[in-house]
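Thread: assembly with ligand

MN 10:42: here's the input set. Chains plus the small molecule as SMILES. Want everything predicted jointly, not piecewise.
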Amino acid sequence: MYKAIIFDLDGTLYDKSGLARRLVLSQLRKGGLGMLKQERSIRKELRGCHFESEEAFYEAFFARFSRPELARRWYFETYMPDMVRLLRRHYRTAPWVETVIAEWRTHGRKVVVFSDYGCVREKLQAIGFNLDWGDALFEAPALGGLKPCKESFEKICREIDVQPSECLMVGDRQDTDGDGARSVGMAFEYVAKAGKPNLKPYLEK
Ligand SMILES: [Mg+2]
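BT 11:07: finished. Tokens for the full assembly:
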């Protein structure tokens, strides 16, 4: 039986179409385009790598920028707040989210959100996601590794006290959400552009 569902955030709980372009335009205005380009390539480089702690992850992450201290300030004081602001202005939780979560919960199962970025609470609130809908929220950096890091998926299962085989991961990327779930023997349901996932087969099990 499935005891928990784990939702990816970006592109899964809301349709993120246009977000990458908006972030580029916004950073262009703020002089952060160089940082943004570096950030995107560093995220790719560190994808799936495991670190002992959130501090160790961020240390390795910012050390790869040409100017690590400036990058750290840009990331937390400009980039993340900017992303939250853009979400609040242009994006909303997909229409199916509230009812699907309610249905899943009537069966006494847990609901988890697992984002590859930080600021997961702020981002969820920005798109109108009621934080009460989730039993637990996780950010990949705080777990020590970006998706599809196997250890991050294992840590979530330990924290919510559910076996990987009893969890369903729902996400919009096979190479991060899908590969991470499969690496620990977790079921995976793919969705495109925050489309409604078909959870019926999992609710019946
Ligand atoms: Mg996603």
